[in-house]
Each structure stands twice: as structure tokens, then as C-alpha cells.
Amino acid sequence: MVRSRHLRLLLLPVLWSHALENTTNVSHRQVAPLVGEDCELPCLIDSSAKVLVLQWSRPDLDDIGYLLFYRHPRVRTHYQHPDFRARVQLQDPGLDHGDLSLVLKNVTRNDTATYECRLLLENEVSRTTTVQLTVRDVKRWSEEAVSGVRGHLLLPVTALLLPLLIMMMMIVRVVVLKRHLTQPGLGLRH
User: Fold this and answer.
1) Lowest mean pLDDT, pick from 63-77, 121-135, 167-181
2) What is the pTM for the complete model shown?
3) Looking at the predicted structure, is the pLDDT value of residue 10 above 50?
4) Which residues, other chains included, contact 23 with Cβ-Cβ below 8 Å and sequence gap of 6+?
5) Is the pLDDT confidence value at 131 over 60?
6) Sign (positive/negative) of CA torsion 98, 27, 126, 115?
7) Are residues 115 and 147 in the same domain?
8) What are phi and psi of 90, to 5 degrees?
9) Residues 130, 184: one domain?
10) Are residues 132 and 146 in the same domain?
11) Residues 103/80, Cβ–Cβ less than 8 Å
């Protein structure tokens, strides 16, 4: 009895994954937090829908575990990937308001990946939301922002400074020419 229960627990995520592969609705999102921030991976449904199974996963981690695995009526922590223990929580833990978004705490560059929110609803509809998470490094992001500003300011600054430079060169030339012509023995005198 204990052995068959243990076997069912081990096979449960595999069976649900197979059932969720034939999704009817798919949506895609992008999220771009900075290193060290908490971020929300969005996954929304109609608030009246009843969730039977919810899987937050990262396909590149293969079958090592899930970020979060929920089977009605609770989250199953023994299926959780070790890298995400104590780092994830549902935005709405009771799943009462249609917000199945996952909060990922203290993101690092290693968290940059594609995430999937797969769910099976009571009316046998399955859905997948794919979220592309790109974690930005503060230093790299600020350097890119500054270089972008420099590139955008180059043309207007050049357009303003070039006429001023030409005018200054003309003034200097007139002053030099006037001094040269007013020197004794070189021509014009006052």
C-alpha cells in the first residue's frame, strides 16, 4: 500500500505534464527586472475558473523539478526544484482571484530563461502562458543607457556646435586680418 502510494506520487507530475501538453490556449509575455529585484511572472485566468493543476516550470531544467506544482487543493513542495526553494510564491496563494502569477525573489542573471505556467481547469480546458524573463545587470544596463543617450544626442549637439564653430573661425580670421592690415608698412591705416 505504501509503495503504490509512493509510486503514484512520483508519477503524478509526469502524468499531469502529459495531460497539459495538449493546450488549447497559449499566450506569451516578457519581463525584464534588474539583478536582485523580486519579479512577477504573469499568469492570469478568469476569476471564476477552478484550477485543478498548476505547474510553473522552466523547460531548460528538464525534469529535475518545478518552480511550483499545485494540485487541488494545495501546493506540492516535494516536486520543487532546489534552486527555487524559498524563492517563489504565488501572487494569490488561495488562487481565488484568477491571478496565478508567480513571484520570483532576488533574481540573478542565471534566472534569465523561458518560464511556463501550465494549468488544467475544472472544465478540462488547459492553458499555457510562456514568460520570457531577461534579468538585467544594473552596471551593464546603465552603461547601455548612457551609450544610447550619447548616440541620440550626437546629432543635435553637432548641429548646434558646428555653426558656432564656423562663426568663431570667421571672427578670428577677421581679427587676424585686421591686425595684419593695420600694422605699419603693410597697407591700410587709420
Assistant:
1) 167-181
2) 0.63
3) no
4) 118, 126, 127, 128
5) yes
6) negative
7) no
8) -75, 140
9) no
10) no
11) no
Q: How many domains does the chain have?
A: 2
Percent of the chain with pLDDT over 90: 46
**How does pLDDT run across 59-78, given as a tens digit for each residue?**
998 777 899 999 999 999 99
7, 50: one domain:
yes
pLDDT at 32: 94
Single residue among 136, 164, 181 that ends a domain in this structure: 136
Rounded to an integer, what is the distance from CA 34 to the centroid of its chain?
Answer: 8
Helix or strand or coil: residue 46?
Answer: coil
Q: What is the CATH number of the domain that holds 68?
A: 2.60.40.10
Question: DSSP letter at 102?
Answer: E
Contact, 125 vs 24, CB < 8 A? yes
Domain ranges, residue 185: 138-190
